[in-house]
Amino acid sequence: MHSVFEILEETTASAGPDLITLDQLKFALGIADDSEDARLQAAITFQSRIIADYCDRRFGFAQAMETFHFDPGEYLTARQGLVLKLYPVVQVGEVSTLGATAGGWHVDPETGRLWIGATAPGDVISVVYAGGYDLPEEAPARLQQAIILSVNESRNSGTRDPGIQSVQHGDTRVSYFSSTTSTGTAGYLSAPVIDLVRAYKRVNIA
After folding, report:
1. Cβ contact 181:189 at 8 Å
2. Of 56, 65, 182, 199, which sits most exposed with the smallest number of CB within 10 A?
3. Cβ neighbours of residue 12 under 8 Å, at least 6 residues apart?
4. Which tens digits make up the pLDDT trace of 48-87?
5. Within 13 Å of residue 138, how many CA atoms lie on the same side as its CB?
6. Would you say 95 and 84 are in contact if contact means Cβ atoms under 8 Å apart?
7. pTM score, whole prediction
8. Other Cβ atoms within 10 Å of 179 Cβ, number
9. pLDDT for 127-156, tens place per residue?
């Protein structure tokens, strides 16, 4: 199964992708001056996008149409549900199967799970709905903490080669702590960051 996600309407004020404001980040890191503002803002946006990619979802609020295509041999049982890309779900406008409006569906707003009953191979299900968080104000605390941790890790590592674990000069040895990467697909996210965001990772069918 694969899905096609199309944004129908969004506003810059709530669409994101930033999961935290610059002021919130600076307060958390104890930064009082403005000398790093541009770099910190860029880091917020970068890390927010990386986390959204890892979680396979969009966090910012929008109105969208999501179309699920079932390949030959694929289908849903009556007890299985699809997971929408935008959640929490605020409103569902229409659910259709092969172009015909479907009835009897049920959605769990908090998890984005949509139950429509059993499907058949080759079915195409389209959902027009609105959902997501009003960013950055409504971003969950764990996601905001993940941004703080990611940016702080980047600042502390500086330009040091991450492959260098220790440096010795005479009788003095300096060892560097480096958060291990949890999985190859996580890219730039460290294990502690992934521990914070794992609960927000989307699964296609639940």
Report:
1. yes
2. 199
3. none
4. 999 999 999 999 999 999 999 998 888 888 889 999 999 9
5. 14
6. no
7. 0.80
8. 15
9. 999 999 999 999 999 999 999 999 999 888
